Amino acid sequence: MTTITLVRGDITRQSVDAVVNAANSSLLGGGGVDGAIHRRGGPAILADCRRLRASHHGKGLPTGQAVATTAGELDARWVIHTVGPVYQASGGDPSLLASCYRESLKIADELGARTVAFPAVSTGAYGWPMADAARIAVEAVRAADTAVEEVRFVLFDDSAYQAFAELIG
């Protein structure tokens, strides 16, 4: 059974097997969590992302999908990149957001990861309302058939932490 824990803090400071990156489809870095992971993880992550773009994901990673790279300088073995939906563009399709969590856990299982740190995918610049995103994330993780032992939601501020805490109890 997967244990769900909450941490208020910086996802790039987590000591886990895999850190999940709320990436954009280009996989080449950006703002928010994506930018922070690329900055702290260093150039090895970007180099792996460029290799993925050159081989399997020439048009970018589709929304709701996930891929893994090295974690570079992070205190993790891997970064699992997932592309969340933009709330306005997707019409708030919860299945796309839930897919980010399911697909990331599937990749984690393929890698043998037992501890995985997730941000609140799509809640920053992508505009997903926090309470709804938290509900979708927690439901997707609870329903997942995974060997991951701990899913750690790492939340950047108090309001995000509260939204998840209300669901975890």
User: Can you tell me the number of structural domains?
Assistant: 1
CATH C-level class is Alpha Beta
The Rg value, from CA coordinates, equals: 14 Å
Counting DSSP H or I runs of 4 or more residues, the number of helices is 6
The largest sheet has its strands arranged as: 1-6-5-2-4-3
How many β strands by DSSP? 6
Q: What is the residue-mean pLDDT, rounded to a whole number?
A: 95
Strand content: 15-25%
Unreliable stretches (pLDDT < 50, length at least 5) are: none
Going by helix content, strand content and strand pairing, the class is alpha/beta
Helices and strands, in N-to-C order? EEHHEEHHEHEH
Task: Give your account of this protein's structure.
This protein is of the alpha/beta class and 169 residues long. It has one domain (3-168): Leucine Aminopeptidase, subunit E, domain 1 (3-Layer(aba) Sandwich). The chain has six helices and six strands; from the N terminus they run E-E-H-H-E-E-H-H-E-H-E-H. A six-stranded mixed β-sheet has the order 1-6-5-2-4-3, with helices on both faces. A hairpin with a 7-residue loop joins strand 3 and strand 4 (78-83). The longest helix is centred in the middle third of the chain and has 18 residues, at 94-111.
Task: Provide the fold topology.
Layout: E1 3-8, E2 18-23, H1 32-41, H2 43-55, E3 66-70, E4 78-83, H3 87-90, H4 94-111, E5 115-118, H5 130-143, E6 150-155, H6 158-168
Parallel strand pairs: 1-6, 2-4, 2-5, 5-6
Antiparallel strand pairs: 3-4
Helix pairs in contact: 4-5, 5-6
